[in-house]
Amino acid sequence: SRPVMSGGGGNSLSAAASAGRCSHASAYVRSRASRAQRSRRSGQQAGAGESLLGRLWWGPEATKEDRDAAIEPSETVGPEPLRRSLLTERGLFLSLVAFRCANALLLHTHFVPDEFWQSVEVAHRSAFGYGHLTWEWQAGLRSPLYPGAFALLFKLLQLAGADSRLAVAKLPRLLQACLAAVADFYLYRFSRRVAGQRAAQWALICQLLNWFTLYTAPRTLSNCVEWLLTTVGLYYYPWPEAQSRKAQWKFALAVAAACALRPTSAVPWLMLCLWHAARSRRRLGRVLALYGATGLLVLAVSGLADKHYYGRWTLSQLNFLHYNLLSDIGSFYGVHPWHWYITQGIPAILGPHLPLYLYASYQSWRQRRRVETALTLLVIWTLYVYSFLAHKEFRFVFPLLPLMMHQCGLCLSELGPALRKAAVACLCCLGIPAALYFCLIHQRGPLDAVNHLGKDAELRLTRTGVPAHLDPDLHFLFLAPCHSTPLYSHLHSNVSTRTLDCSPNWRDQPGYVEEQEAFYSDPAGFASRLLDTERRPSHILLFDSLLPRLRGLLETRGFTLRKKFFNSHFEDGRRSHYLLLFCRSDWV
């Protein structure tokens, strides 16, 4: 394993070479050298003692400065066990896992519907046999590979008899937190490889302090796995020196997996793959064979998974491109101006890191740094292509953040001590409060409300002994924008539910009217027809902006306000400040 130089504060982290000079380094060197001698005696081939030691200690990508900084003796690093543990890659990785798990446990808010409805809701239905699927899973737009990981987790919990409502709700985010730690770790390795130890430490700090990464990384979104695979791919990419054949396979597999999971990943990787091919003229056939073989392998695995899940031969990637590019069905969920990513998307997700990134990009261009200039051009190219798509979201550019965090870390590593302290203080004072607000407060109503409904279902079962799906008096009605809340992944009870449908007209039905729009055009009339013609609900959940139009109907039908759940200080379209839970008078 490779040592990671770490100090107790910002100054020691920035002075990576100084922190790496420890009194115990010579012992490590002797230990590694003895291992090298044993390896040679056992018949393994190796080069000179110094180069073998460098490979064992740092890996083939290490610079001479990194190795020199590691083996020079120094009295600046003490013998504390914690400090020694952090001087290894294993210690760093375990620390990142602990950090991201704490990050996941701090998440009590809702971001976008896809974090539930394209992952854990699908997994819950696969593992437990009940749940609701959105239209994408009928049309075959989504690959089941990502939800399949959570379905396996749920199945293991079920077999162990540990599938409590809390475990089913929390463990997927903890699993995703572990994947986020892998992404952090590979960002560190990538930055160390192309810019050295000092820049790598600051790049990692920038990532850990980025408010949007804290807010998004532990969420069960396919964009988060795309973010991870992008970081892994960057590390194994030949920058520009030749990589081992094994590393090239890992790079190609990461790229292919990212494109299989999110076909739009092909946009940023196209540029890097073309650059790789252009630099490999003498080995062009081998490079193309590598891309072709890994692409076919991942496509075959994805196709078999689609066949198993959908019960028919289909390719979710082609369906995704058909509906989102040819049919432009994404515009159904909102249309944004072409400049949205430049004027809102990137500035918002970077936050206080924006000045660092802009300055680093300028310096890279001015100093003709090959890798960093390529990363800047890659960001520009991706934003250019994505700007042609009508529907835009912050999470779509989340996989670009590691590229930017590397640039920010390189910038911090080259600043003077006073300016660097001021920059880090700014990142902490602005980024951490923003992350805490969005993780703990903003849009927490949906999770609080559904957790309350889950407790009600559990109490009902305890009192009556009747399973939820057989209880005629238990029925939840959601009069809110569709997919505003998670459902069975947090209820974990086969209770009867009714939500508004907002599926686009993907079947091209003549005269199609979206149910959600029909409700909002006449809330009282639509709700009255629901109460007259469908099963009478025990609970009704709605946003407080609808209360003036539904209060009279609910009171005359015998419903009483039971609880208010804070949602947001800002109104977001039809999602307002509070979620209101009404119950039948005989239930209260």
Automatic annotation (TrEMBL):
The EC number of this protein is 2.4.1.-
Q: Which GO terms describe its cellular component?
A: endoplasmic reticulum membrane
Q: Which domain of life is it from?
A: Eukaryota
Instruction: Name the membrane topology term.
Output: Multi-pass membrane protein
Transmembrane stretches, start-end: 251-275, 287-305, 338-359, 371-389
Q: Which residues form a coiled coil?
A: none
Note the InterPro entries from the entry.
GPI_mannosylTrfase
GO MF terms on file?
A: alpha-1,2-mannosyltransferase activity
Which keywords are on file for this protein?
A: Endoplasmic reticulum, Glycosyltransferase, Membrane, Transferase, Transmembrane, Transmembrane helix
Read off the Pfam families from this record: Glyco_transf_22
An individual GO BP term? GPI anchor biosynthetic process
List the subcellular locations.
Endoplasmic reticulum membrane
Q: Where is the signal peptide?
A: none
Q: Which EC class is this protein assigned?
A: transferase
As for family, the record states:
Belongs to the glycosyltransferase 22 family.
Q: What is this protein called?
A: Mannosyltransferase
Source species of the chain: Macrostomum lignano
Lineage of source species: Eukaryota, Metazoa, Spiralia, Lophotrochozoa, Platyhelminthes
